[in-house]
Amino acid sequence: MADAATETTQATETTVVESWTEWDPLAHVIVGRADDCHIPPAEPALDAKVPADSDMRGQWGRRPQESIDRANELLDRFADQLRARGIRVDRPTPIDFSEPVRTPDFETASQFGCMPPRDVLLTVGREILEATMSYRCRWFEYLCYRPLLQRYWEEDPNFRHEAAPKPRLTDADYRPDYLSESISIAQRLDWAAAKHFVTTEEEPLFDAADVLRFGRDLVVQHGFTTNLKGIEWLRRHFPEHRVHAVNFPGDPYPIHIDATFTPIRPGLILNNPQRRLPAECRGLFERNGWEIVDAAQPAHNTPPPLCYSSVWLSMNVLVLDPKTVCVEASEVYQAEQLDRLGMEVVPVELRDAYAFGGGLHCCTADVRRIGSCTDHFP
Ligand code: ABU
Predict the structure, then answer these.
(1) Is pTM beyond 0.80 here?
(2) What is the ipTM score, two decimals?
């Protein structure tokens, strides 16, 4: 791998927020909560993600209390595991997710939850950016993180708290073709190959979990939750960064890049073998000596009940530093592969919380990783 050039930023004693990559040593993180999580009513962007035969179809309302309690038990334990390693862990403040979301442009009868924070908050250097989001039911989710962001703002004079423009999310944001319940997988794959996704180009849209941070470079998935205008918005907002759009034509439900393409350390990325990173997107990594390794198969054939995500949460790992990675405890094939690749694997039980919005990467958001803005693709 080529040597990385480093632009040093001087961290001070008051630095609270700073994170440039997915792998620098983790010092401070937010872990989501399952309190009061709801399955929201049907809406265009959310429906496009739910397979026709999913147990989620036709359901909405507060999630069963026992599943909320179990998810919270696992999330609390994960937070304690991180604290035991000296990592500062903060938790969001839930709002009343049974409240409808009503704006001049749309109304939906309930909200989602404060899992997973990775979808909402994007930390780039000393900035935390609230994403536009693309689901109506997630329009107010940023409020759960405001108490933390206000505290960081008080503590750290260099912290920039930014919010991307709130989208209108009118019907013009969604393609009506995706509203049918009976779209075949073959049709979905044709559309994914043609980059014809459920969200239109009406206005900039992005979820933070579509963005991966590689120091000076940001890699952003174009799919259901992030459109090209959203990627262009990020390019203009981060003028010192190079922003690269990628897409994965083998994914019939492309939301969030973090169960598809997972950087582990400088020079090493896990790639979802079903979702097929196109050759034109590989060049950047291959020219710079990065190894793109197909991820191990998931240990499960199906997601747990009432889960939006795919079985590929197996590769939704949380890197603690370039030698250490948290892997869901039942994902034995992924753990074995990362062990063979030279990583110390920390098993973390989380599968019973997957239904709340994702795995170990999803359920966290970086506040601080020790490192500076490095150019890995000089
Ligand atoms: N939020 C990540 C989910 C991606 C997937 O379902 O594969």
Answers:
(1) yes
(2) 0.97
